[in-house]
């Protein structure tokens, strides 16, 4: 070990990198971590955390309207974007500093600089300094992938959405994944006129068909304009500062802001060739089941490996890496039944196989659904139906997948995901007495 400056050098202080470095240091390793932007990474600085806070802020639009039906005299309310934006950014700074303290408390040296690989055991910092390490962990994450079209520089991505000077009156969002749909919901609730443009006619590819169809129906009903087979071709800036978005098969769309939510690309511009670290066919760092790259001393975790681009997955990978290499406790991440959510209005959540994937795998499957209007929505006069769906193995009765859309769906699904992960049967759900009156009781009442 004495031959190297540190035992572990981590590039990127996001979800995966911070977890790996503090656990490795806890196992007694000498650890340094480089961060070129802000400690906390995408999730804390410009992902899950500020996004969820905006989702909470946005949902007050519906809560305030519904409150009147519950007897509250709510005067006409105005929304002030700058207040929410600044409060959210302050909270982001608070959480980021906690991450910094965690690193310091675990004696991880934080180097606030860009770092790249300079060989199997060497990292080069932006300042020109080289640090040698027995192991290098790449945890650089991913960045928005923007289509190469004329006028692309007039557009923003989710990175900039958190910093807007003012709320756009009209916003066009390109993309149809979870980030596109979440921001469509956020801006719509704040009062922007939202158009979501998508090059195919499928939103939220990979999520259960019936659930995503329900979101499309509810979102369209609320006034979000979906344009399909509408590939973005060009953005033009007009003299008054507004934008005109040219899309295939549709009239040009005038707007104030264009947001690209067209996918995220692993950040691999890191001198990887100096250590023969190979990329896979998706442009992500190729790793084995123990997160090892094609170079024996270099590992990678999180979005840069493009397995499942979610924070809890990056954290688990960082933990498994550190325990395996430095803690003499080898273990691997189990990618089966990873729950995920879309924080739309209403939100969606799911775990396990969708109906179509289950049919592909098992031929026939049993499907149970509950299509209902939440009690609160009934009194509020909100014509918005929730849908819960359970996909069950045809012979063993094991629950293969659970998918839902409705108020608090992600909160409910996290608990139910434990049962799915544990391999429980539909009968086990049926044997559980309902907790009444809740929405979640539908999970044990599906017949
Ligand atoms: P990151 O967290 O991206 O961290 C990588 C870090 O490396 C960054 O801080 C970066 O600045 C730094 N870096 C990069 N290159 C270098 C270099 N050369 N030198 C030094 N530092 C470098 N996931 C969820 O689970 N739930 C959600 O609700 C959710 N919402 C999201 C919303 C948005 C808008 C976005 C964009 C993402 C969201 N995600 C969500 C995904 C989640 O943020 C990522 O999966 C997670 O952050 C990945 O962690 P990571 O450690 O791989 O990378």
Stretches where pLDDT is under 50 for at least 5 consecutive residues are none
**Main sheet makeup:** 7 strands, mixed
- Which structural class should the secondary elements be placed in? alpha/beta
Name of the top-level CATH class of the largest domain:
Alpha Beta
Could you give a quick summary of the protein structure above?
It contains twelve helices and 22 strands.
Task: Provide an overview of this structure.
The protein is an alpha/beta fold. It has three domains: 6-144 and 265-326, 3-Layer(bba) Sandwich (FAD/NAD(P)-binding domain); 152-262, FAD/NAD(P)-binding domain (3-Layer(bba) Sandwich); 346-444, 2-Layer Sandwich (Enolase-like, domain 1). 32% of the residues lie in helices and 23% in strands. The strands form five sheets. Strands 1, 2, 3, 4, 5, 6 and 17 form a seven-stranded mixed β-sheet that branches. It has a five-stranded parallel β-sheet with strand order 8-15-9-10-11. Helix 3 packs across helix 6 (178-190). Bound molecules: flavin-adenine dinucleotide. Flavin-adenine dinucleotide binds at residues 11-17, 34-37, 41-43, 47-48, 51, 114-116, 139-141, 158, 179, 267, 270, 302-304, 309-312, 314.
